[in-house]
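Q&A log
Question type: sequence-to-structure
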Amino acid sequence: MDYLFKNADKVLELLVEHVSLVVLSLAISLCIAFPIAMLISKFTRAQVPVIGTFSIIYTIPSLALLAFLVPFFGLGMKTAMVSLILYSQMILVRNMVAGIKGIDPSINEAAKGMGMNKWRIFLKITVPLALPVFIAGIRIAAISMIGIATIAAFVNAGGLGKLIFEGIYQDHPGKIIAGSIAVVVLAIGTETALRLLERKTALK
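Response status: OK
Response body:
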């Protein structure tokens, strides 16, 4: 704990790197997952192969995937981002599809009977009703990304994992403990914030 208090500025800098990596990767992941989920929710036959492919990727050990991507993207943040995006797709797509498919078809039929077009039905009915499930997927994906981003320091991606790996290589327990505490606090804070948002949207 002495290291954490005496080097709070360094830990904070690495925390910002970690958060930046996760937030940017999550934003790109959502931009990819949302259209895929919308598409396969309309074409049921595509759900099994698409989600199955993402599930296979998700089962690959993170170090193995990072090592596989290094020859293509090199060392650094780019490799880490690609791995985080690949890992998150299964969680995001599956939850988005579940949210969309979980809406009672009679609600959409009633909206059509009221003269609403597909775009208005999507904005006024589909998104609000499926939003809690969407956020649940984002919450799970974000927590997963925080953990994997820690391991991504192995490929020189920075973040809190850098401090933990330095502690391991240098036999410095202070660095290991400081990095681990920061990761845990970040994960718990993210979990709490997104769970509260999930509950808030579910109550509307």
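Response note: The domain at 2-203 is CATH 1.10.3720.10 (MetI-like fold).
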